Amino acid sequence: MKTYFVDVILPLAIAGTYTYRVPGEMNEVLAVGKRVVVQFGKTRVYSAVISKIHQTPPDRYQAKYLLDILDEHPVVTSEQLSLWDWIASYYLCQLGEVMQAALPSVLKLASETKIIAEEGEGKDRSQLDDREFLVMEALDLVPELRVNDIIKILGQKTILPVLKTLLDKGFIRISEEVVERYKPKKKTFVILNPIFDEPAAKKELLDSLERAYKQSDAVLSYLQMARTQEKISKAELLEQSACGSSAFAALVKKEVFILEEKVVSRLASPTETFLVDVTLSGIQQNACDDIKVGFKKKGISLLHGVTASGKTEIYIKLIQEALDRGETALYLLPEIALTTQIVERLRLHFGSAIGAYHSRLNENERAEIWKKVLHGEIKVVLGARSSVFLPFRNLGLVVVDEEHEVSYKQFDPSPRYQARDTAIYLGALHRSNVLLGSATPSLESYYNAKAGKYALIKLDQRYGNANLPDIEIVNLKAAQASSSVSPYFTSTLIKGIEQALKKKEQVILFQNRRGHTPMLLCATCGYSPRCIHCDVSLTYHKSSGRLHCHYCGFKESLIEVCPACGSTHIESKGFGTQRIEEELSMLLPEARIGRLDLDSTRTKNSFEKILDDFDEQRFDVLIGTQMVTKGLDFGKVSLIGIVNADSLINYPDFRAFERSFSMLAQVGGRAGRRDVQGKVIIQAYATTHRILEQVVSHDYEAMFQTEIVERKKFLYPPFFRLIRIDVKHKDPHLAADCAQRFARELRVHFGEQVLGPEPPLVGRIRNYYIQSILLKFSRASVSITKVKEVLKQNIVRYHLDKLNKGSRLTVDVDPY
């Protein structure tokens, strides 16, 4: 019998894979991509994924045996493993971190600690204290206890000292049990006993139940439901008949009803399948044909189409063609809010063949979609950035809609990947076509298209020859000087809202800051409440009546008296979406106002509810953060108001102008998407800023040309690659020392390409002080692969240096 070894990926932040020996009886069921149970360390047990099977034992350590193989068939494909390798290599993270991000939690087994009494009679318990004695008494009654059980028995959370002394005294032993967390959803269905199939038997049954009214109602309700339904669940029958559980139980006992438990899907599926074909206009069809030519020549096409030009219909047509070829498709979107709206449009075309995948699904739902994609039951996946990790088979098309969006970037935790770039690599792995789409493409993508790396296709007209919105810039300073009715709304914007409401049209207001008041300030001494864990001011939220930190979640009560000087003169500075909602409801009390931001969408179906209410005109005005800028399509929206454009333009970031143009153009594009020309009112202090002028003239090309010159001059992407390294420590001086030492080491290799260290915009988060080092490398003259190899070696040396103990180091490739 051959002796096999497997390299496995563990869900831990450790370098590379780990090798285990395979027991001979498992040889026949080995396969790459299956999950296995392994022991790592002295006691911990994990589920890992097989990445390689071979016959070479490890050199440096004695290989432990696999404990178990969990799957009949692989749950991870070879293409996924290749993608994980690329992400770990490109984004300088560990393979286990990629596995943690990729697999739904329920597919990662947890080891659960069990406490068991040691065998042996006559152990003297007189030496035990009260808490230890309680644990042993409990173990006399049951064979084993879990940690949570002991917490309840002792009435305290700190139980490790108790367990340690019992372990040292030889009274207990501790073991780990691997627990499979995915549980299929089951539902109880009701079947009428076949002996009552004949009409005569049914009549006899009903006659026998003549005096048992509730039981008779249950049978009659079943017979009525059976005319239109193949399967009738117990819950549905109880609700329809209102017979009560006791009457139903009596019918089961009499064997009138037979109960059958079945596994059902957690995913909502449409009651009907509408396979509606999409008809493209002449302009759309030409663009679609050009995209397909681009696929043949380059493999990647960039569709630059103005807002409301009908890009979604082109995506649907291309997806349909991929399905007709027997392929699957991935449709990436940057926001969950957008996913919930577009999924209904796609269901009209693809029915139950489509599945949505995003972070608002619970873990069992995510696992179910994973398995359906793996088995080919879902042909079209519509999802946010994590969708790139799904186990696609025969992937023929990848669509990245709103490809410019910053939401595609994962900032924390590791892996800090860019979903757009990852999707491009995923397409290369599967040899599938990749389509990037946007009204305001990222400078990198547009530069790649201009340079011939991607095919560039333009859609310059709105669908149905609808006009682009008319954009007006209003001077906030002049409006406030002329004693406007509100410090937040100019008279121009208020009049625009009133006119829209009179015409029974809808309005979207954009303010890129949530909460009520971003900063409170003592007018006497200048004190401002700040987070005790982070270097940021606290934001007042009227809904909770408290001050919130948007970085760590810390909350404290609203101050009315300054804790520094005792003054009661506390002033509000700035405004968020809650303040805008409050102010508008005072100015226009008849308006029905909704709000779409992180605070109003915390529950699972809150996105869908707010968007549905707005779409069905239960709201007249929707106030939102950047969630409202991304691809939403409402036919009755005629006016867009940007409450304060300066906060976007003046952000200290080399992408600030690009992102300001993008956000303003995108939010403006929500207006006038049907017959009536839309109107956009931008309130700003810097009314002559070139970005605002370019937005007014809808001139993306001018913005690109001015920005690309600046990028080249100051050594930024797309001409240079950036890598940011953050050094964190709870002591500010040690954070600075560690960062300075590491920067010196890097300068030995990279010289002037190393900038910093210096504190970032927010220098402390969750009690960790931060120092940032920025590396810049020319795309044209520097091998980034060699750079990363050197960087990896230096990171290892950094962690080995005892002077750096207590610090954390994070690496972010393509950080902005």
UniProtKB/TrEMBL annotation:
Q: Which SUPFAM superfamilies match?
A: P-loop containing nucleoside triphosphate hydrolases (SSF52540), Winged helix' DNA-binding domain (SSF46785)
Q: Which PROSITE patterns match?
A: HELICASE_ATP_BIND_1, HELICASE_CTER
Instruction: Name any cofactors this protein relies on.
Output: Zn(2+)
According to the record, how does the cofactor bind? Binds 2 zinc ions per subunit.
Alphabetized SMART domains for the sequence: DEXDc, HELICc
Which InterPro entries does UniProt cross-reference here?
A: DEAD/DEAH_box_helicase_dom, Helicase_ATP-bd, Helicase_C-like, P-loop_NTPase, PriA, PriA_3primeBD, PriA_3primeBD_sf, PriA_C
NAD as UniProt keyword: no
Q: Which reaction does it catalyse?
A: ATP + H2O = ADP + phosphate + H(+); Couples ATP hydrolysis with the unwinding of duplex DNA by translocating in the 3'-5' direction
Question: Which keywords describe this protein according to UniProt?
Answer: ATP-binding, DNA replication, DNA-binding, Helicase, Hydrolase, Isomerase, Metal-binding, Nucleotide-binding, Primosome, Zinc
Residues bound to Zn(2+) 1? C522, C525, C562, C565
Cited PANTHER family: PRIMOSOMAL PROTEIN N
| The protein's assembly and partners | Component of the replication restart primosome.
Q: What does this protein do?
A: Initiates the restart of stalled replication forks, which reloads the replicative helicase on sites other than the origin of replication. Recognizes and binds to abandoned replication forks and remodels them to uncover a helicase loading site. Promotes assembly of the primosome at these replication forks.
**Name of the molecule in the record:** Replication restart protein PriA
